Amino acid sequence: MLETVFSSLYNSGAESVTVSVFLLLSAAALALGLLYAFFYVRNNPSSKSFAVTLATLPVIVGTVILMVNGSIGAGVAVAGAFSLVRFRSAPGTGKEITAVFASMAIGLACGMGCLGLAALFCVIMCVTEFIYGKSRFGENRELELKKVLNVTLPESLEYAEMFDDIFEEYTTDSRMLRVKTSNLGSLNRISYEICLRRKGSEKHLIDAIRCRNGNLEVSLTAETDHLNDL
Fold first, then answer.
1. Single pTM value for the model
2. Architecture in CATH for domain 141-229
3. Order of strands across the sheet with 146-154?
């Protein structure tokens, strides 16, 4: 029974694909892509363009697989074309990359004519997205407390140990990452990597630092990648 459900609707070779089979596979790919995109958007914040991508990617991949089925050379060429997509898109998170691969897998299954397998895989991924989205699996409280603190100081102030007492009160760990001059050398921009003692103490930390740096610019970010924007 399972072999019948998961078997392909057509024989190997694009010449064996009829119009009715193509329309059926395309409709199934669109429906499953829409279903997966709906569940993903419901459980993860994302843009409309990314949701549309997840919904339409299966039918695109499925059509490509229909065209190259049975041709090794064409398959290799298409794989090379897909590898170029990453150069025309913005970097995504691990979750978004996983969603794109899942959407492609649905399209591959539809393109091979295995609609039962495609539907089962789509349901598995939707349930998995829902469970992981609602659970606290993988959450790291310590990582949430790690921040990058950027402080602007007048050039005349000695910054080496200027905030040690403040860091001792509000953080469990701190280290200087970078010192950069600006405004023709009249200002110094210092970046620290810190780990807060408790969540929600950001405002008190910033207020204490503003009292030391003459109320100049202070920023607190969650990722060290933001150092590149300084």
1. 0.59
2. 2-Layer Sandwich (3.30)
3. 171-182, 187-196, 146-154, 218-221
